[in-house]
Amino acid sequence: MAYSKEEAKAGIGKLVEDFKKNQARLRNQAEAQIENNFIRPLFKYLNWNTVNEGLAVADYEFVVNRTGRGGKRPDYTLQLDGQHLLVMDAKQVKYDMHDPRWLNQVYSYGYSTQSLAPVRRIDFAVLSDFEEFVVLDCTLHVNDPRALRNFLVLNWTCDDFVIQFDRLWELFERENMRRTARTRHSDTPRGLWALALSPRKVKANRTPPDKAFLADMDNDQNGWRVRLAKDMKKLNPAADGTLITAAVQLLIDRLIFVKALSDREIEDDYLAQLAETIEKDGLADNDHGWFVACGNIFKKLNNFYNGSIFKPRPELEAVTVANKTMRDIIRSLQPENSPYNFAVLPVEILGTIYERFLGRVVRTTEQRVKIEEKPEVRKAGGVYYTPQYIVEYIVKNTVGKLLESCRTPIDAAKLKILDPACGSGSFLVGAYAFLIDWHVKYFDTKKRLSAADRADAYYDSDGRVRLTAHLKSQILKNNLFGVDIDQQAVEVTRFSLSLKALEDTRREELYEERTLFKETVLPDLYQNIKCGNSLIGPDYFSGKMFPDSEELRRVNPFDWQREFPAIFSSGGFDVVIGNPPYVRQESLGDDFKSYVKEKYNSYAGTADLYIYFIERSLKLLRKNGHFGFICSNKWMRSNYGHPLRDLIIKESKIEQIIDFGELPVFQGAATFPAILLLKKERTKEQNFIFAPIKRLDFTLLSDEIKKIGEKLSEQSIKGETWTLASSSEVELFEKMRQIGIPLGEYVNKKIYRGILTGLNEAFVIDHDIRDRLISEDKKSVELIKPLICGDDVRKCIINFQGHYIILIPKGWTRQKIGTARDPWDWFHQNYPAIASHLEPFAQKAQKRQDKGDYWWELRACDYYELFEKPKIVYPDIAKESRMTMDYDGLYFGNTVYFIPIEDLYLLGVLNSSLIFHYFKRNATVIGDADKSGRLRWFSQDVLKLPIRRIDFSNTPNDQLHSQIVQMVKCMLDLNKKKSMSQSEKDKELLQRQIDATDREIDQLVYELYGLMEKEIRIVENIDS
To answer: Residue 550 contacts by C-beta under 8 Å, 6 or more apart in sequence?
Structure first.
């Protein structure tokens, strides 16, 4: 029944009265009695279904957090509509609800959800013995449990249930919580969420658990890695950086695994046992008994779990760690001290932590230990973890597709899934989760489990199907394979998969299975996850002298057929998925380039490594196998991607291309990725889904793709680049080409680039230096000209920044200082002030001559006279059309192009939305993509733009021409007035008029090219 507010007030008042009457006797009553007799009834009067009567398991409102002997998990999670709202724990009355131990128990559970999907995040925790009722803000990072008292948002006694009943009802009544929960992430949260501590007050603490945990592990000053590394070096002077990097990684992995076993209550709290045992021995801080004791625990766990985690390793046998360091780390991991609870912090989140952790290594000298980024990470601009929604989408559309045809677990066991650059294992963990879910659904469809089924699945006390640890171990061994060149990445992948295998596992069930199957719990993943270079085989060293150990370690060749013989004998892998490295091949040296040039059909001199990973993956797939990568989108339109584009069309069927354009899929990265889904199947016709994603605030990627994705044909991937245009766009482009002529023909191929000085710091000067040189020698003015760069050029305006260029006399060629003095002598005789200005740069450069450097390259421009004439100007890099006219005789640097023509009609057409849409869909990307996602306006592409030549005998066209010219004159004038205006209000008014005029020009150009309404919608990206 639903209680009215008055009924609830009366019922809760009676509860409080009964409690206070029997308070002395209740102090020693069991926790369950307090919970059943007072706390549950409190929430029952607040209209919660505390016994989940009539609800399906998925809809339970009071979810019992099953706890083991340790009782470390809070009792309940409260949820509505699948949205987790509160975590709550009941205690005996005799306990103090402000004790840091009990506060941390509920806080760490809630805080550890803060990196999960919004529906799984728990922002508040309740701790109560009914006598006291406290609520904690769990959105904050609190490293010391003793400080948690400062983060209470409610601190009531049972009297407040009556005194502040209206507030209690407002905050915790079921329907009120349902309503206010919807505001939790808005700018104006209500109800309980309005009590969250002020961001201003706790700004430094609002750190999600993945970032906070990474800082604990990897802080340069006091993180676990640097402390362990320094100890290992101090106590083991002969240990080098490679050994210490590996040993630190292994030790941290194992300690985290032990904590996870404890938090999940699968195992005893070995960390606590360790602390108690060693404390009794009273070992000195500089001793290493803690480290030895850890080794003994690892041996014990290895006997039970086996697998790859606790296996004896020579790296750990070769080092020791001082007691103080081990004690501090272990204490920080103990449940009563740690803000992280691995019962709710999933393996996927640990993967995001480790991906960044793997980007750094230990470097050592005789005296020093330093943690620094790996060279390849530094060149790539950092480590960027694949978001979970990307992993899930790729897995669903590769592994999921093959599982659709599997009728039984025996069929599913045959699937072989590979990540050839597995990193921390995020894609393999995602595939593992999908396989587990498929098996649960398979057994769930059965009316009852047979005797044979019960080796693989069983029903828990809630009637839900659960997989045995034995089956989850078999799935790991049968289905999942990975390779990475980095040994530490391989260790983390094995660690992540093993930890995932024990997720949602219960201690008693695990030990029963151990007895039943007479085998260790986890499989040995050494034959599944291997270390090697996916791109290079042993033939890399053919014909060369035998490499030294350092080179062999660096190259790390990998023989796919020898390492996975059974898979290759059956045709190859069924699925290849992943996120290959974003590394330029130039960073790997000439030998690598020579090798891939010979071995890969997709070779290009400026290609990134992901190009070769795609080709390698297609070779590793069996016929009809599925491929799914997220990688840079540059290959679809770059020159270097042309061989790969041909290979993909020839060898596979494209199923989906999901292009994220400039969206920041990888936080902090300047890469612009796309999902590529292929099937290894030769086909005469390509028909695939293309979805240009425009936002990242969608709920589900799959829903967004369904909404905006289009079915494209092979027309969109023909030609020099892939336009990835819809059939209607392709028709529009063809229509424009038929109506217009190439710009190159329109301007007689006369497009010029600005001046390349060879040494800007010498030849590009500011206003003050210009004035000084002219005052010293008036003739200097002959060689000093006003200069603009690409960033100065905007649409219909040039923002002159007061820079000037010193010209090289026409006809000069590049000279190397020391081999010819004539240019110098000529400068001194004719322009002495300029010669004096250049002299210091020459002297600096002479010191570098042993390296073969030029101090400057004397580059005269052969078309100086064109700069003095009217011309259309545009930058070489821009996000949109930024063309204008120059009537002031300005000179340009090499980041500017110009067309020496005064043609306002052409300027209007080039600046139009129609021509820009054509350009961005057809232009080629060469070399590195600009970090902000801007386009490169290379002449080879600009010259192809279709420009309608006006037949002035045709009255309508003549009129359109005149209107466009008038509108462009207006645009130039408006922009000039805006640049000169001193009033912010006037600037705003002028900008409105500029925007309106720009739209008028667009409409005229649409009419000029005969566009229909549906074609205009395509250009303006308006849904029909």
So the answer is: none
User: In the numeric block, which tokens belong to residue 179?
Assistant: 């309503």
Q: How many CB atoms lie within 10 A of CB 761?
A: 10
| Mean pLDDT across 193-208 | 70
- pLDDT for residue 931: 44
Instruction: Please name the fold of domain 5-205.
Output: tt1808, chain A (3.90.1570)
Please report the DSSP string for 314-383 in residue order: HHHHT----HHHHHHHHHHHSTTT-S--TTTS-HHHHHHHHHHHTTEEEEE-SS-EEEEE-HHHHHHTS-
Confidence of residue 100 (pLDDT cuts 50, 70, 90): very high
List, for residues 872-897, the tens digit of each pLDDT value: 999 999 888 999 999 999 999 999 99
Q: Quick one: which of 414, 520, 502 has its CA closest to 466? A: 502
Query: Mind listing the pLDDT tens digit for each residue in 395-413?
Result: 999 999 999 999 999 999 9
| Per-residue pLDDT, 143 | 86
d(CA 553, CA 474) in angstroms, rounded, equals 32
Beta strands 673-679 and 621-632 are: antiparallel
**d(C-alpha 647, C-alpha 635), whole Å:** 12
- Which H or E run contains 710? strand 710-713
pLDDT at residue 89 greater than cutoff 80 = yes
Higher-pLDDT residue of 491 and 910 is: 910
**Rounded distance, CA 995 to CA 675, Å?**
36
| Encoded amino acid at 898, one letter | F
Residue 369 neighbours by CB under 8 Å, 6+ apart: 226, 229, 230, 233, 244, 362, 363
- C-beta separation of 265 from 67 below 8 A: yes
Q: Kindly write down the DSSP assignment for every residue of 915-926, as one continuous string.
A: HHHHHHHHPPB-
Distance separating alpha carbons of residues 82 and 54, to the nearest angstrom? 16
Q: Is residue 446 classed exposed, middle or buried when 0-12, 13-18 and 19+ CB atoms within 10 A define those classes? A: exposed
Residues of the chain with pLDDT > 70, as a percent, come to 91
Q: Which backbone phi and psi does 327 adopt, to 5 degrees?
A: -60, -45
Burial class (CB in 10 A: 0-12, 13-18, 19+), 387: middle
How far separated are the first and last CA of the chain, in Å rounded? 49
Residue that wins the pLDDT comparison between 505 and 680: 680
The residue ranges of DSSP E strands in 871-965, in sequence order, are: 871-875, 877-878, 884-886, 891-892, 896-899, 935-936, 946-947
Task: Return the closest-CA partner of residue 38 out of 110, 96, 91, 104.
Answer: 91
Q: 319-333, 506-520, 589-603, 913-927: which has the minimum mean pLDDT?
A: 506-520
Tell me if residue 445 falls in helix, strand or coil.
Answer: coil
The torsion angles phi and psi of 132, rounded to 5 degrees, stand at -120, 150
What is the rounded average pLDDT of the residues 696-702? 89
For the chain, the domains span: 5-205, 209-380, 752-899, 955-1008
